[in-house]
Design a protein that fits this description.
disordered C terminus, single chain, alpha+beta, globular, 6 helices, about 20% strand, 8 strands, about 250 residues, disordered N terminus
């Protein structure tokens, strides 16, 4: 697909999303934003820098530039790793989110790899534009458009944001990790309500294995494993069935 056709497709889909969201367009942000919020934790400041950097890279593919979603798959699924970065209010909110089963085949809660292939059931890294709401298998969901070669198949793969039982706090409390999706960004009901209202309708969602810590540092997966291994005791059945081991969200 050419850049021009992709741009036309993004704009056409967004028009439907804006009508469904039903909110008036917000006033434009200043042309230049500070590199970090005036307040907040070191983690917040790092997220603010990532959000501004990725907005600049995405350019006019993003219509609403007030809030950016950042999904940090460089940390374990037991941690809050999906962030709503509000550039206007200079604040950050954190939520739990699932990753794809094809990215975590041994189901230990760590994302091991990415894929943009149809049928891979894996998560894809890169920048997305959020599109319209629609009613799907899991109720209200948000379509996504991939903006990079690493995720341009998002529409064909039906990669969306939605809620599911395997992402609820009760699942996390029982198993010590989130259930797995088929590549979608999946949340518990309460968390999804916040994401739905704040991130749909032409905003940026960026995902990568950033490994951001409370002090703002970015660690590799190996560093994360070494740091968190004593605190991440996985709760698993004594004799997990094939379904429990391999079916997304089964446990």
């Amino acid at each position: 697909m050419s850049d021009m056709n992709r741009r036309d497709l993004l704009k056409g889909s967004l028009a439907t999303g804006v009508a469904l969201v039903g909110s008036a367009a917000l006033p434009a942000l200043p042309a230049k934003l500070a590199a970090r919020p005036r307040a907040g934790t070191p983690l917040d400041r790092t997220l603010f820098e990532v959000a501004k950097r990725e907005l600049d890279k995405a350019g006019d593919a993003i219509w609403r530039r007030d809030i950016v979603g950042i999904c940090d798959y460089g940390v374990h699924s037991a941690q809050r790793r999906f962030y709503l970065v509000n550039l206007r209010l200079e604040e950050v909110q954190a939520f739990h989110v699932s990753h794809g089963s094809g990215s975590d085949r041994n189901h230990d809660g760590w994302l091991d790899s990415y894929s943009n292939e149809e049928g891979s059931h894996a998560s894809s890294r890169g920048a997305y534009v959020t599109w319209e709401w629609y009613q799907g298998r899991y109720g209200t969901s948000v379509r996504l458009g991939g903006l990079e070669p690493t995720n341009e198949a998002a529409l064909r793969r039906y990669i969306v944001m939605h809620r599911a039982a395997y992402a609820e706090p009760s699942h996390l409390q029982r198993w010590g990790k989130m259930g797995r999706s088929q590549g979608c960004f999946v949340f518990g009901t309460d968390d999804f309500r916040h994401v739905l209202l704040n991130l749909s309708g032409g905003r940026l969602l960026y995902t990568d294995s950033l490994g951001i810590q409370e002090d703002g540092a970015m660690l590799s997966r190996e560093q994360q494993l070494a740091l968190n291994k004593p605190n991440l005791q996985m709760l698993t059945p004594d004799n997990p069935s094939a379904m429990q081991r391999y079916v997304p969200g089964a446990f």
